[in-house]
Amino acid sequence: MEKKILYRLYSGAFIAMCLVPSVLMPFAKTDEAKEKRKLAEAPKIRTEEGKLNTEYFSQFEDWFSEHFAFRQSLVTADGRLKTAVLGTSPNKNVIYGKNGWLYYGETADNYLRLNTLDAHEMSNIVRNLELMKDYCTSQGADFLFTVAPNKNSVYPENMPSNYVPAEGKSDLEALTEELSGSGYFCDMKDVILSAGSSIPLYHLTDTHWNNMGAYVGYTGLMKALGRDYISCGGWTSRNDRLGDLAAMIYPAEEAKDRQVYTDYPFTYSYLGHFRALDDIDIRTTSENGTGNLLMFRDSYGEAILQYMAETYASATFTRAVPYPMTGIGGEGGADTVILEIVERNLGNLQKYAPLMAAPETPLPEKPASIYAGRFSERENQNIIDWTEFTVKAEPSGQYTHIYGELPGFLYRGGDNHRILVTAGGRTFEAFLCFEDKLLGREGERSANGFSLYLPQDVTYTDITITVLNAGDTDIAVTIPEDQINRKDDT
C-alpha cells in the first residue's frame, strides 16, 4: 500500500513538473529581443484564405518549443555547461572562441574561405558599384564604398583552433584587390588593422565594433573623402553593453560587455521621429557640420552614426533595401553618398538593384549577333527555347521594374559582362543582380541575373536584351511581349 502511494506521489510530481512549462507560459514569456531572430508565431486553425490549416500541429510544436516557460533559463544553463565543460557553443549561430571571445556563426564561411563568390559574381558586384558611383558623379555627389570587416577577419587569433581557413582569397580580399585604386573604395579592414590600438576595437561577446572601433572607421572614411574629422579623446570604458552573441547562448543573463565612450561634446540632433538606432531611416542635423550626407548602412552603422552626424550639417542614414538613390545632388541634396555593408553580406550587392532610373546608354558601335536560340539539327535552324529565359516586369512606384535571369550560353569571353535593355526605342544598362526573393528563389545565387528600373514614360511591347561580352561577340535577343511576365497583367 505504501509503495502504491509513493508511486502515485512520484507520478503526480512528474506530471506536475511536465505541466509547469505549459501552465506558466503566460507568466514567464520568452524575451524575443535577446534571440536575434524572429520566434515562431502561435498557429491559427484556419489560413488567411479561410481554409483549414493542415500544418497546425507542426506549427504548434515549433511555437511551443520556443515559448514554454523558463525556456531561456534552461537554454542559459545548457550554454554555461557546454561552454565551460566542452568549450563549444550550444547555438549554431554563435562560435565559442578563445579567451571569452564569441563570433557570429554566419561569418564562418567567410573566415574559412568556403562558398566564396566566383569571378563572374565578383565582376558583377564591381560593375554594380561602378554604376552607383557613376550616377552619384553625374548628380555632382561624391561616392564612397566600404566594407565593415567581420570580427574574425580582424581578430582571427581567438577563433577556435579547429577552424582552419582554406587556401585562396576570401570574398573581402578578392573584392579589395578588384577595387584597389578605384578611387571610391575605403579599405576598412586595413584602416582597423593599421590603428594599432591596445584596446580591442570590437566587442568580445557582440558581433560589432565598439565606439572606438567605429571612430577609427569614421576617420578612415573622412580621410578617403579628403574631409576634416572631429577629434575624439578622453576615452573611458564601462561594462554596460549587452552583447548580442552572449544573449543568444545566455538569454536569461544580463551578460554585459565593455563599451568605450569619448568625452567629445556632441551637438547634433535628430530630426523627425527618432525611436532607436536600428530605425530604417534616421535624419540628423548639426550646426557645426558642413555638407549633406546620404549613408546606406547596416547594424555597423549604429556606432558610427554619432561621428558622421556631428560632421555633416544634414545627414540621412538608411537601412532600406533596395537602396533608394533619391535626394542626391542639386540644391539641398546629398553631396556625399557612402555605402557601408558588412563583410558577411557582400553577396547582397548582386541581389538587389538600387532604386533609381537605369542609366541610359547608346548601343555599342560594333554589331551584335542577333541570337535566335539553340541550334536545331532537326529543323536546321535556330530556335528560341524560352524556358531558359526569365523576364519579368512589374510597376514599382514611379518606375517599371524589369528583372530576371538569362541562360548561361549568352555569356562569352571571360567574366566581365554588361547587360543592356532596349525598350521603346531607348537603351538602358541593367544592374547585374539576381532578385532571388522576387523570383521566388530566396537564398539561391546566380551570376546571370539582371535588374533595372525604367521610367514609366518608356512604353514598349517587346524588349531587346544585349549581353556585352568583353573580348568576344556581343549577343542580342529580342524578348517578345508574350514571353514577358507582367505582374499587372495577371
Q: In what order do the strands lie side by side in the largest sheet?
A: 4-3-11-9-10-8-7
Q: Give the uncertain stretches in residue-range form.
A: 372-381
Could you tell me the radius of gyration in angstroms?
A: 27 Å
Number of strands: 22
Structural notes for this entry:
With 490 residues, the protein is α/β, with parallel strands linked by helices. The chain has 2 domains: 103-349, no CATH class; 369-489, Sandwich (Immunoglobulin-like), CATH 2.60.40. 26% of the residues lie in helices and 22% in strands. It is built from 11 helices and 22 strands. The protein has helices at 2-23, 56-67, 71-86, 108-112, 119-138, 151-154, 171-179, 188-194, 211-225, 244-249, 301-311, and strands spanning 94-96, 102-104, 142-148, 185-186, 236-242, 256-261, 269-271, 281-285, 292-296, 314-318, 336-342, 369-370, 374-376, 381-383, 390-396, 399-405, 417-423, 426-429, 449-455, 463-469, 475-479, 485-486. Strands 4-3-11-9-10-8-7 form a 7-stranded mixed β-sheet, sandwiched between helices. Helix 11 (301-311) links the parallel strand 9 (292-296) and strand 10. The chain is globular.
